[in-house]
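Write out the 3D structure for:
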Amino acid sequence: MDDEEQETQVWLVRHGETEWSKSGRHTGITDLPLTAEGVAAARSLRDTLSGTTFDLVLCSPRLRARHTAELAEVKNVTIEEDLVEWNYGDYEGRTRKDIQAERPDWSVWTDGAPNGESPDQTKARVDRVIDRCRDSGGRILLFAHGHILRTLAARWIDQPVGVGAHLPLDTAKVSVLSFDRGTPTIDRWNADQ
């Protein structure tokens, strides 16, 4: 590992609350606005992020992620399609409990969604984002969504997608990925500002 990779640090920010994230409904392609609480939480991210210089800022094209970045007053944001949330296909807008009433053993982490994305498809997307971050080096900030950021964290530490199931991530929380002596690490997870 070279010195540049050793100094790479990736900050993850999940978007602020939406009505569907509040109620546990799977929100992939549906473009929902932030709730009043989501707006307030996104604004509070300013204090956490303002003292840090980022070499690269990437954001999902979804409104909820873009609005969170805007309210956090982050500049030079580049839209990154690979940061969109999982495509939940037929399960879009449904809760895990509702889905498991029909399919008791279902898990997005192992099964994906019919007419949506598989875990392997999301793995391919986050691996491209990770490659971009490692190639860029420096301090990077990503604004995105719960499941895709959990997937990204699992892949960052060279684990299968399913490890993301063990990394709950609340809205408007900050997480930090980096390296320790050449080993990819999760330095901070689901942290309040």
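The two ends are 30 Å apart (CA to CA).
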